[in-house]
Each structure stands twice: as structure tokens, then as C-alpha cells.
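Form P-L/3: holo structure prediction, ligand NAP.
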Amino acid sequence: MILVTGATGSIGTHLVRLFQEKGVAFKALVRDEGKARALGCDVVVGDFDDPGSLVPAMEGVDRLFLNAGGAQPVDGEQPMVRQQKAAIDAARAAGVSRVVKVSVSGAHRGGRLAQGAHWEIEEYLKASGLGWSMLRPGGFMQNFVTGTAGFTADGKLLDVYGGAPVSYIDCHDIAACAAALLTGSGGLGETYELTGPQALTCAEIAQELSAALGRTVEHAELSPDELAAGLRAQGLPARFADDLAELSRQVASGSMAATTTAVRDLTRREPRTFGEFLAANAEALRAG
Ligand SMILES: NC(=O)c1ccc[n+]([C@@H]2O[C@H](COP(=O)([O-])OP(=O)(O)OC[C@H]3O[C@@H](n4cnc5c(N)ncnc54)[C@H](OP(=O)(O)O)[C@@H]3O)[C@@H](O)[C@H]2O)c1
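OUTPUT (holo model):
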């Protein structure tokens, strides 16, 4: 039996759908049964913030898809680290044999925000004795639909990467890679850097959005210093604002421009282009 965590999220909803299409036996760990009803699958209630709920939720589970929310610090702590370590402890106690974890591109010791948090969890998982595979995706195409990518008040797409290209990936492809690892025997002890098929600049993304929406989407540059000042003005902690500014400097220097063949290697098909992603999400895009 496979347990899918983060099942209501951007990656998890695709993974649930893929398993349903393929008739794979799985259940989803959810915090809110009512919210999860739309998934149309077996669920078990559990919360990463309640370690006592996790071991019973993993009873009879052989493989775990480990994923949850982002890495915004709360009172200087990264809740994700504590939460995912608790899930790994529960998996070991429940006799899970293998964990497929969603991490982040460029995870490293001492990295800012998600890069440091995911690295710490990766190391904990590697030391746990459980079988593991790491998926390290870059920026999600979904960010342009969910609002995670910033827009100005008058609807301009914010370029916080100084015109540098980013090889955005569709969460559909991340889920397909996870499905291959959760249902197959390959990839044990492997780390996969996942990207889309091409790196796009903000100007190119704005052009694609314009074509999909049938109206002009403009873009506006925001320097890392302006980004940090804006976040501080919104009341966000200075450290968080500075970390985000530093990450945007790194991306501006080309740190997320490379593409890999990992999606093709794992799924035997090409990852979706940004245009294909927009076509598959036309309804959500127009509603957003
Ligand atoms: N956005 C990007 O560009 C990007 C790039 C690379 C890596 N990542 C990584 O991707 C991950 C986010 O994936 P995603 O976008 O699929 O997530 P998401 O859409 O933000 O969804 C988060 C999921 O985690 C669940 N969750 C949150 N807190 C939980 C808790 N305490 N206990 C149990 N479940 C909980 C949520 O359930 P509810 O429905 O109950 O809220 C939801 O299903 C993060 O680790 C992030 O660092 C993101």
C-alpha cells in the first residue's frame, strides 16, 4: 500500500489522479476529511503537527510519498523540518520500506529557506535506514496560476530574476516521476533534479500568458533590494525578506536555467512545455 501525503496540494492532486487512472492501490493522508472528499479516494486522517496521528495512519503502508507545504519560517523556525522528520520517524516505526520525498532544486547545507530546510530533511531521511529517492524540482509552472508568482496591483507579472531564464516544471510531471518511483523498483538511493523542457524568461512567460488569456500581460522588473524592501513593508520578518532577495539574486545569475533529462528518464516521455501546461489549466487560469 502507498500513502500519499500533501494529497490536496499542487503535486498531490496530480499523483492521486494518476494512481486512480492506473488502478494503483493507495490512500491519502489528509488533515480535513471534508476537504479531501473531492479527491474521491480512500483517506486516512493525520497531521504532521500531531506525530501521534502519523503511526496509525501508516499502518500497512509500504511506500510513502512525502510532501507538504512550503518553507516560510514561523517565529524563526522552519515547521517543515520538524514535520517531515516526524513523518520519517513514523514511517520507520510503521515498517515503511521506501520514501519518495519532494525536495527542492539546489538543496544544500546552510541554504536559505527551502534549500536549507529540505537539505536537513534529506539528510535525516538518508540516515533513517529507510529506502529513499529524492525529487528536487525547480520552480513550479503552477506558481503562475496559484498566485505564488507575484503580480503588481495593476496586473503586471513581476520579474524578480533580472530577466534570467528559469526551467519551470509542471507539477503534473513531478507527480508522474513520483508515480514511477512509487510503483517501480528503480531509483533507490537516487536524487533527481527535475526541470521542464526549456528555460523561459519572465518576458517569455508574459507572452505565453498573453496568448492563453487573449489579452496583453505586461511584466515589470523588481530588483532583489526592492523585493526585500516591499516584503518588509508588508510586515514580513527582515530575515525572511533578505533570504528571498538573496535567492532571487542567485536565480538572476542563472542558477535555475539548466534543464535535465530526469523527467524523460523516469517517465519515458518529455516534460510538458509551458504552453502545454497553460492549455491543460485554461479554466483555472481564466478564473485566477
Ligand atoms: N512552489 C515551487 O515553485 C516549489 C519549487 C520546488 C520545490 N517546492 C516544494 O514543494 C513543496 C510544496 O508542494 P505543493 O506545492 O504540492 O504543496 P501545496 O500545494 O502547498 O500543498 C501542501 C499540501 O500539504 C498538506 N499539509 C500542509 N500542512 C500539513 C500538515 N501539518 N499535515 C499534513 N499535511 C499538511 C496540505 O494539506 P491541506 O489541504 O490540509 O492544507 C496540502 O495537501 C514544498 O516542500 C516546497 O518547498 C516548491
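COMMENT: Residues 79-94 form the longest helix (16 residues).
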